[in-house]
Queue: 2 jobs
Job 1
Amino acid sequence: IHPGRDYDTEKDLLLPGYYDEWSKGLGRNGVGEVVGVTGDGTNDGPALKAADVGMSMGISGTDVAKNASDIIIMDDKFSSIVKAVLWGRSVFDNIRKFLQFQLTVNVVALTITFLSAVAGYNPPLNAVMMLWVNLIMDTMGALALGTEPPAMDLLNRRPYKRDASLISRPMWRNILVQSAYQLGLLIFLLQNGPEIFGCEDGSTHHFTIIFNAFVFCQIFNEFNAREIGDVFDPFKKLSTSPMFLAVIIFTIGAQWVIVVYGGDFTQTSPLTYDEWKVTCALGAVSIPVGYLMRQIPISEDPESFAGLSVAGNDDNAKKNDSSSLSTFVFVVLPIVSAVGYKLYLD
């Protein structure tokens, strides 16, 4: 087309961002950086289309640019891009908070049901109780943790790679530690509850105590789930999370109604004032457990972040994180499991 010109040797000089590069980028299958492009003209259309996130201007942008983009900035202000990034990171973190909370409930509920069946007990959580727990876990948990407002410090965090794990190492630590505490508590109540509370072993009263303690563990662990890292501040900025407060209040009120008035439908029996205090206090222990578990030195995998490292020591950090995670999995968990099993046998 152009005499005297060689496309293969001069394309990088004459055509930065040429089509071949875009084609390879679109088929990268989970590797490479996440790229955002802003534009307002017709000539920006191909770049907006090829980018991971294309952002066009709503006022000055052409229809071609708007149709090729993923996000339209309605006020044409670049500060709105910062807000979009902030809210995007907030939604991502809220999903992870919900997963952290949901997986903890799943692990405990399934394990206690399995262990009770193996030991010859009737399941302490019947079908209606499990439905209520699922409502707390899914609908209520999603409303409470999925509507958390964004914090400005999210912008200080390096972006994640496109293939980074959704569940980080600190999240696994939090899930396993909280699950170990709740499971140990329920096994203890299953074995020693009749003697402590003066009720018949395997009775409706006995299982109601276990059910109430389990639900209050989830209520207080919901505060822990507001943070997925090493920061311990479960009650921070509650005034800015009205939905979270509403869900907590509704859950406590509904739990009281189910226990007191459920009767034969939920197979629960009313508890005394002292039993309410004890089961609520046992659930509240999830808060100090949330502080203690964050003292276990496990950080996120440095390889999950994109961009330049601030510390400049990713290799050492990765080794330390792997060592800490291995220590936790192979040393702490067996000890916790052995103690729980011993309490169950005794």
Note: The chain has 13 helices and three strands.
Job 2
Amino acid sequence: ALPTTTTTPRALDRNNMTTPSRKRQHDDDMEIEGDTKHPFKCLPMYGEHKRAVSSVKLAPSRLTKEHAALCASASADGSVKIWDLGASVDDKTDDSLLHPETTLLGHSRGINEVCWSNGGDPFVATASDDKTLRLWDAQTGDALVEFRGHDNFVFCCEFNGPSNLLVSGSFDETVKLWDVRSGECVCTLPAHSDPVTSVSFNRDSSCVVSASHDGLIRVWDVCTGECLKTIFAAGNPPVSHVTYAPNGKYVLAGTLDSAIRLWPIGVSGKAKCSKTYSSNFHNNSKYCIVSKFMVAQPKRRQCIVTGSESGHVVLYDVQSTKVHQVLDRVHKDVVLAVDAHDKMELLASGGMTKDRTVRFWAPEEESASLKKLRTD
């Protein structure tokens, strides 16, 4: 049965599951293979919401010509806040509470995900428990389009490359494609037998991958609506998040067995897991925790960044699968949301109800460049 309300964002009903929630203990003896010369450090500033932070997204660099970096954060409090890091970084060593550049208000219930458009306009889309999606101007705070058609909570959303289509997934077990200009639904895919937890377009926007609490990852042809491939891990653990790799040849999927798996996405033949990422720092058995690729400086490192129910942010080396770095445990609750900038070594993370903060992370040289951009 689906819950009638979500008291915490990105949390799924697990009453029909027999696997207990596992709390992994911190293991100080665990081998960490990292870059000790350029470690990520928490920047001395943070954003804050009134309730749990469900999603954080750093704006594409093409939108930030006059800014060092912009970040959108969504929350169970029903708001999206836009944070301008370039206008906020200073020489303070103590934590400074940021003031949002813009606050987007209009949803009647909590927001599960926010995403930036891929075009030249500063637009964001939101997916909400009020069963709708909305398109916003992040600069003015104006709501531009409302998307209605889902029968239950809308859990996830993403723009395609040209940003003329928006894909969404819902607790009503469907995936929908929307015309961004008109707000009309152009396609409904009866995708899964449980809530849809994550959706992602591939590089050329010809396919969408969806993930669900039913344990399945499915690849869909955008033009025909045909299911091209179905993937699942041994034991069929619920899938909490999925995203395409930057090269478009793999999908990265997080599951509620505290593992992240990399799957080849070739259409022919049965998919075999290429790599598995897990550690004692990475605990995920209850909530839909996001995982992202971090490849802004590929010659220095190529990592996967993820949150944890332990409150950690963990970086894995893509190739070796070993822990690259465990960031300082600044969040006081589960870290549901993480994101990585496309050009800078800059991370964002968001904490749940007992924390409610948005944190930013960078190596010292990136932090210095943010300061320089502000003074130029």
Note: The two ends are 56 Å apart (CA to CA).
